[in-house]
Amino acid sequence: MMRRRTPGLFFTLLLALLAPLALLRGQEEATSPPDKTLEALQSTIPLLKREQATLDDLRQRLEDTASDVEREKIEAEIASVRQRMDELRNNFRTIASGVDEDAYFEDQTGSTSFNQEFQEILKPVLEELRDATSAPREMEELRDGLATATSRRDLADSAVRRLDELLKREDLDEAIVGQIKSTRSLWQERLDEAAGRIAVIEAKLAERDRQAPSVLESISNAISRFWKSRGLNLLMAIGAFIVSSILVRRLYRLLKRMSPFHRKGETRLTARLVDLVAVIAAVVAGIGAALIVFYLRGDWLLLTVTAILIAGLLIASRNSLVPYIDQVRTMLNLGPVREGERLVYDGVPWRVDRLGIYCRFTNPLLGGAVLRLPIRTVNGLHSRPCHRKEPWFPTKENDWVILGDETYGKVVQQTPERVTVLRLGGSRKTYPTSEFLSLSPENLSTGFRVSSTFGIDYGHQAISTLEVPGVLAARLEATLLEAFGHEAVQNLNVEFEAAGSSSLDYAILADFTGEVAHRFKAIGRLLQKVCVDVCNEHGWVIPFTQVTVHQAGTGVSLDAPDPQA
Fold it and tell me: CB 374: neighbour CB atoms within 10 A?
């Protein structure tokens, strides 16, 4: 335990450093008292005799007078003469001994007025600390007392030796000798008193050192005392706080069922105010229960400390009340985020289900994910009303998608943190949810269209616009219906698209339900296969890309197949 630094310790060290110098100086002066000292002593005696004569005269006048006014005046003069005589005797003793009596009687361990006022305000706390540190403080006081008594003994010894040297002189008057002997007798008493006090204090220190317990025993005893008194009271107060808070919350829940302010589907301002008051009431009830426990148990220490902590929190919260006002507005459904609306957090849309100290957000398409955020975090967000049919996520689990990076696969898991896509062949590709949304996923499970282009040779130009589209459409429809069924194939259309550079091109547009989304790639290949089969059956030529080469100066052009074809 750290000792308390006191002014007494400083003065004790200062006196310990100056004592040898004082003793040495006293010895030198005792050996050869200066002539000025004798002159000062001799000049004091006539003054004392004169004041004594004045005092005797005033006393005689006081006995002879009968007037009350005169008696009061004489008594005031007597008091003034006595004060001057005391000052002369004090000066004589100081000059003769070489020691100031104020230094002898100085209290070196006095406390400051601030400490006294602070002790009065926090009396229970200080009393507990005083009891806990009684043994160390007692040892410290004994050591301070020993230092003070040692300093006084040294001062008194120096004064006695100086007075003994003065008495050895033969050129002193009888009056001076009498005063010096009286002074020596006084300082000898002080010397004996200081020596006796030193012996007593040293005996007490030795006894305390012998009876002092070990560190382990001190810690064990302190813990035992704490749990027998403070610890039990603290546990009871915590229990009372928890039980009271829970009871208030449970009671409020029962009343809430019958409250006209909490009708189902309504979010009135009054209801939110009542909810907020209920939360505050639960906290206040818990704190009040804890304080009552301390009061009934008579534990003024914990009661005072708890009250100080509460007061400190209230004072601190006064300076930081502005942010809490915005939070209260949000809790009352008056802020930028409101219940039942839609907000985006970390790139993911959420539905605001409940606003409170901890707000609750859900997304039904992310595995029923629930997100809880503190009100201070929600206060910086913004929500907006959403349409009843507005989706909360572009996909669901087991949907087939095509992403902006051309990834094609089935969504097997989607959470607020990540989305996993199962690709053909069995490999899995995982995206952070926000990145998945940034790739603009195309959901094939809600229906899709497969577009394909096919071309025939210009040699069939005569039948290209009427006969060829009908033949291709009939064959494609029959094949698709046989492969996927009537329910899966929504629409099929074959149209002449363009007269290309080397072929007559047709656009094949086939619409399907999401049930065959897993065959998206295969459908495109099937369309090309059916078109080739139809051309083989009807003898239609499928052209390849040609490059026309013009021979310079002749105007003759040669057609040759493109080597890239």
Answer: 12
DSSP 503: S
Rounded to an integer, the average pLDDT of 426-452 is 92
The percent of residues in the chain predicted with pLDDT above 70, rounded, is 76
pLDDT score, position 14: 38
Rounded Cα–Cα distance for residues 381 and 343 (Å): 8
Instruction: Identify the pLDDT of residue 550.
Output: 41
Distance CA 272, CA 253 (A): 14
Give the pLDDT confidence of 350-402 residue by residue, as tens digits. Answer: 999 888 888 899 988 887 788 898 888 888 888 988 888 888 899 999 999 99
419 touches 428 (CB < 8 A): no
**C-alpha–C-alpha distance, residues 408 and 441, integer Å:** 10
Q: SS3 of 240, please? A: helix
What lies within 8 Å, CB to CB, of 418 at 6+ separation is 430, 431, 432, 433, 436
The alpha carbon of 485 is separated from its chain's Cα centroid by a whole number of angstroms, namely: 66
Distance between CA atoms of residues 457 and 541, nearest Å: 5
Mean pLDDT of the chain: 79
12: closest CA among 106, 148, 163? 148
Q: What is the DSSP letter of 247?
A: H
If you write DSSP's letter for every residue of 72-140 in order, what string do you get? HHHHHHHHHHHHHHHHHHHHHHHHHHS--HHHHS--TTPPPHHHHHHHHHTHHHHHHHHHHTHHHHHHH
Q: Percent of the chain beyond pLDDT 90?
A: 25
Name residue, tokens 């007798």. 185
What burial letters (b/e) apply to 213-240, b meaning 16+ CB within 10 Å?
A: eeeeeeeeeeeeeeeeeeeebbebbeeb
Asked if 361 and 353 touch (Cβ cutoff 8 Å), the reply is yes
Task: Report pLDDT digits (tens) over 173-190.
Answer: 788 888 888 888 888 888
Joined together, the tokens standing for residue 562 give 């493109």
Q: How far apart (Å, rounded) are the C-alpha atoms in residues 445 and 52?
A: 126
What CA–CA distance (Å, rounded) separates 401 from 404?
Answer: 10
- Rounded to 5°, the CA angle 486-489-492 comes to 120
